[in-house]
Amino acid sequence: MKLTYQLLVLAFLTLSLESIAQFEVKIRGGDVTLCENESLVLSDSVVSGVPESYEWISSVATFNTAYLSSTAVNITQSGIIILKTKDASNTFLDTINVTVNSLPEIILIGLTPSQYCETASDIALNASPSGGTWTSEDPTALVNGNTFSPSNASIFDQNTKLFYNYTNPTTGCSNLDSMEVRVDPKPVLDPISDTTFCRKQGVMTQNISRLVTGQNYGMLGWAVFNPRVTLSDVAIGNITLNLQNNQPDTFTIVIAATELASCEPIDGYFKIIVNPIPDASITNSNPSGCNPVTSDFSIDITNSVESSTSTYNWTMGDAGSSTATTSTSSATYNEDGSASISVVLTSAVGCDTTLTSTVDVYPIPTAGFVPNPDNFTTTALPRFIFTSTSTVDPVLGASIVQYEWDFGDLNDDQDISNEENPPFFYPTDTNSYIVNLRVTTNHGCSDDFSYPVIVGPSISSSISHVIFPNPTSGSFRVTDYTPSMSLEVIDNKGTQIDKLEVSEDGQFTIEGRGHYIIRIFDSETGDSFCSKILVE
User: Fold this and answer.
1) Fold of domain 467-535
2) How far apart are CA 225 and CA 253, in angstroms?
3) CA distances from 356 to 199, 340, 352, 477, 530 (A)
């Protein structure tokens, strides 16, 4: 009986011990090391049994839910965390040690100033402890990992942050600090191109408009250090230039944008280049004359335009065109009237002017006259009346104003006249005379005409002949012509023609067209006969 109780007690104790041994709950993961302000999630790890309640206990931590199997915990310092669990009849406690490492202390070397112009130089970034990593809200402004570059910034007119992150190599704990910086966009002046233009002849004031524009400025302005320039308000953009008379001019206009925020003012300039149009004239060696007129032309430049580098495009009127790179030209004009000459003179910088001149070509008169009688008289009345048939084209107002007669009497130095239609008495001797008429126009142009007249014997002639055909192409016959007669042919200058061909049948031939005098003399009777013939 005693043995049976003992066995029962032993069995009870064995069951009790087994019951206790079968309930055990641990904190999952065991001891923990973490960084300050680092959050932690704890959970149970059931070894045996079935927990009915949980309780998280610690003096160094706060729990989000202290009575669940899993909880988030905030730990402020190193210490112990206890997990208390129970089942229907047992309580089990488990503890872990929590070690909290402090965050590294960061000291940033601040940027002074904290506001920079886009044109500022790069700035090295410094912090303690060294060895951390820099980042920026404007990534392009951070170059080479630790240099702030305003010129590479892409965010302007607002604060941006630079971040420094450092990790303690011993504890693995990281800390982050930041500072603010601002980049102001640089002032910009929109470029104004240089302007080049040609000054018109006689123009001494030039007005032009140029508007100054830009970005990121306080104010815009312009200035010029030249008393010959007047500037209007920039918004209007008018410039008045007082030009030099002959020389090229260059005006430098300074434009400026005033400072804005941290940026300094900027300036620039543009040029207005004024080149003179050639101030020149044509020198005409022979501006007028009797047809034909040959004239040489040259260019006389009186201002600073260089003759040797200029080009010339001549238009020579009736004489055609000539293009050259020299300042001279020449032409001959043979059409009555005014010929217009022009040349486009262009300087090396493209400024041109057109010069003009004229050549007046005066017409040559045509002298002529008719003697009465035409052209033979006798010594009984050796008088002729000469009627001028001279003409001139009235172009340019030409008219005959002078008549100069020479009646061809070599023995009389008074055988001249200035009348238009003069009479003249010759000596009573038989002879041939060459009469010359020179006519001259009011422009000094002249022409000569000569014609023979004959004073023959006053003997009564019984000879009567007919010369035919008349006019003729060169050959003619004379009626009642006998071997006792001789025949002379005299041209319109009074010269006897030697070359006179006579055929066997009495046909005469004259070579050369013109008016001729036929004189026939009969040696038996002493009679003579004269008549005119025209060879066409």
Assistant:
1) Immunoglobulin-like (2.60.40)
2) 8
3) 20, 7, 13, 63, 60
Q: Minimal CA–CA distance to 188: which of 237, 119, 115?
A: 119
Q: Where are the domains of the chain?
A: 23-101, 107-184, 188-276, 280-362, 369-456, 467-535
Q: How many CB atoms lie within 10 A of CB 166?
A: 21
CA 231 to chain centre: 26
Domain at 23-101, CATH class: mainly beta
Smallest Cα–Cα separation from 268: which of 223, 335, 201, 323?
Answer: 223
Residue 495 has pLDDT above 90, yes or no: no
Complete edge-to-edge strand list for the sheet that includes strand 229-231:
205-209, 238-242, 229-231
CATH of domain 280-362: 2.60.40.10
Dihedral sign, Cα of residue 384, residue 385, residue 389, residue 395: positive
Strands (E) located in 349-493: 352-362, 369-372, 376-378, 383-388, 400-406, 416-417, 423-425, 431-441, 446-456, 467-468, 475-478, 485-491
Which class would CATH give 107-184?
Answer: mainly beta
pLDDT (tens digit, 9 = 90+) per residue, 6-54?
Answer: 333 333 334 334 444 579 999 999 999 999 888 899 999 888 999 999 9
Least Cα distance to 256 among 212, 226, 216 occurs for 212
SS3 503: coil
- In CATH, what number does 369-456 get? 2.60.40.10
User: Do 23-101 and 369-456 show the same overall fold?
Assistant: yes
> In this model, does residue 316 exceed pLDDT 90?
no
Residue pair 339/311 in contact by the 8 Å Cβ criterion: no
- Look up the pTM and report it: 0.56
Given the DSSP bridges, would you call strands 288-290 and 352-362 parallel, antiparallel or unpaired? parallel
Instruction: Give the SS3 label for residue 150.
Output: helix
Architecture of domain 188-276: Sandwich (2.60)
Please spell the DSSP secondary structure of 194-213, one letter per residue.
-EEEEEPTT--EEEEE----
Residue from 41, 32, 35 nearest 167 by CA: 35
Mean pLDDT in residue range 374-403: 91
Closest CA to 276 of 199, 205, 355: 199
**Tokens 């079968």 correspond to what residue?**
22
d(CA 434, CA 441) in angstroms, rounded, equals 23
Q: Which residues does 353 contact at the CB level (< 8 Å), separation at least 6?
A: 201, 277, 278, 279, 280, 344, 345
- Residue 521 has phi, psi (to 5 degrees) of -125, 130
Q: Which whole number is the average pLDDT over 301-320?
A: 85
